[in-house]
Specification:
By secondary structure, the chain is mostly helical. The protein has one domain. It contains 3 helices and no strands.
Length: 66
């Protein structure tokens, strides 16, 4: 799995998890959803993604899956 797809998978998983927690536990978990969305938006414009930096340090290689 490429770095870009892994970042998208993490973001989608965190969003779904926080929505489930907001539904079953507390609506304050929606702030986490907003944080993930804001991070995705800023990384689209700036190219800076903290998760990508962490994953690169763990050895995930960027590249094309095709």
């Amino acid at each position: 799995m490429t770095l870009d797809r892994l970042v998208l998978a993490f973001a989608g998983s965190f969003i779904l998890l926080s929505l489930l927690l907001a539904h079953y536990h507390s609506s304050y978990w929606l702030w986490f959803t907003a944080f993930v969305g804001a991070n995705l938006l800023q990384s689209a414009f700036t190219g800076f993604c903290p998760l990508a930096i962490i994953l690169k340090k763990f050895g995930v290689k960027p590249g094309s899956a095709f």
